[in-house]
Amino acid sequence: MFRSSESQVSRRRFLQLSVAAGAVATLAACGDGGAADGGAKASGDLKLPTYKAFEGLTPDLPGAETGLEPGFLQFPENAIASVKAPPLKSSVTALTETFATPPPPMGSNQMWQALNQALGGELKLTIGTDPGYPEKFATLLASDSLPDLMWLPPNQGIPNIGPMLEAKFQDLTKYLSGDAVLEYPNLAALKPASWRTAVVNGKIWGAPIPSTPFGQVMMGNPKTWAKVGGLQCRTADEFFAKCKELTHGTNYALEPAIINMLHMFGEWFGAPTTWKVNQDRSLTHLYETENYKAAVEYAAKLWAAKVFYPDLNLADATPKTVNGQIAAQVTVGPRATADFRVLDPTLFVETMIPFGHDGKAKPVYDMGYGTVGFTPFKKTDEGRIRELLALINYLSAPFGTKEYLQKNFGTAGQQYTLDAKKNPVLTQAGNQQAPGLVSALQIMTSPESVIFNPAFPEDTKKIHATEQELLKYAMRNPTAGTYSDTSSKVGPKLTAAFRDTIVDIVTGRQKIGAYDEALKRWKSGGGDKMRGEFEAVLPASVPVS
Asked: Residue 412, exposed/middle/buried by CB under 10 A (0-12, 13-18, 19+)?
């Protein structure tokens, strides 16, 4: 069965990517966080790549610029070519990461060899794993011989991004800005929102790697929630009452991932998506709002009622949600329902639509970061740049194309066959050769995401409808696509320390008064400096929150 690009990344790992990229350290940048208006001006002057949707494929359910993903009920029967010729004339080296078991090496991996044949040259991958990728990145960066391509993650604390890119990597602006990108149609099919995350200091440094534009959602087993009138609620008090009713014996309403659950509660209380833009263009952080503090107090009330599963070290709540022992958990985007179908083919989990905590206030829905970083090129000559761009264009081929099939499934009759509805299904050989390789390729290059689960086409329709509901309340981090070096360097550490206090408050180990003291430490430890750096490069086009 086909699995979406996000589902090839482990649920827990992708959840961490979503949280960290959106709430900890925005990597991709429109400015260097330095001079008061230098970065913002450079950003304003830059012409992003012209967007031109890929022609020749019509989804069953249309997408939209707002973030709505197109839906396909089955794989297009006649895959079309998106490139005219193999992109490579020589070998290419690249550093990337896999979130699956590393693949068999190229010499014994027929799928990898077939991809190289289609590319016209050898794609030699150095594949890192998690944890340890930043160390591997730093080691190669310090060497005398950089690989041609190096995936730059959005959330792994790599510091000094701007100076590093200027010193070591190729400015691709003239090759990709405006209509120049039209020479590479698959790259032109990447949306402007994706390209903004590959801009630093007003320059384009690589092709972005799109992921689902939707952030975290709360999902519930409908068979469990039917006992209390369903998952959807109108007020926080109603949700609290339902959670108490569902909790008895060894059954609990909520998974123990407190910070992720708190993220959901914050939406109901109207907390901003990381930063709030004030009338005077200053920024207020999520932690500084009474909305978020109120959500923390609400979470503490739920914990005191013993509705959270008690083992805070539970690695993955999915099996317990499927069997009904846990009623609801947090995952990334409504498409994650496929993860539950794997464990129980009869189960379509439901997504909570945010609501105002008091039944009156307007909730928010935090959209995701939308990409998992970008892949810059080492400095080189123009001929080599164009060869590398042609390679990235091939590997970014949209869903439904011949190149997409080659990258994700290999060769028909070898790594995959077609089922009765002409959908690709991995063979035994494919299941051995593909997962680690496909994960590594998807992390460094990707087309825009789609909704597709051929075994359950009705799911595609339901997910598409759910995304439309979530978009009614959508809010995006206003600093996404801007850069703070302080955030990159110390943001994860500051966030972890603040969250430790939050967990202590929710679980009753500390009183709510500890919140203000933790906030002071966050601000003095780098939060205020982050604010100033983000304010200095905040584009004028970003609206007041």
From this structure: middle
Q: Are strands 326-332 and 252-254 parallel, antiparallel or unpaired?
A: parallel
Contact (Cβ atoms closer than 8 angstroms) between residue 28 and residue 332: no
Where is 432: in which H helix or E strand? helix 428-444
CA distance 491 to 476: 19
Paired tokens of 113: 């060899």
Q: The pTM is what?
A: 0.87
- Residue 270 zone, left/alpha/beta (φ > 0; ψ -120 to 50; rest): left
Q: Encoding tokens for residue 286?
A: 């999520």
Interacting residues of 357 by C-beta distance below 8 A, sequence separation 6+:
235, 236, 265, 268, 269, 270, 294, 298, 363
Question: Cα(462)–Cα(335) distance, rounded to whole angstroms?
Answer: 10
How many Cβ atoms from other residues are within 10 Å of residue 421's Cβ? 12
> Dihedral through CA 6, CA 490, CA 257, CA 337, nearest 10?
-10
pLDDT tens track for 430-472: 999 999 999 999 999 999 999 999 889 999 999 999 999 999 9
539 exposure class (CB count in 10 Å sphere: 0-12, 13-18, 19+) = middle
The 10 Å Cβ neighbour count of residue 54 is 19
Nearest residue to 208 (alpha-carbon basis) of 179, 182, 183, 172: 172
Both tokens assigned to 194: 């994706």
In degrees rounded to 5, what are phi and psi of residue 322? -65, -40
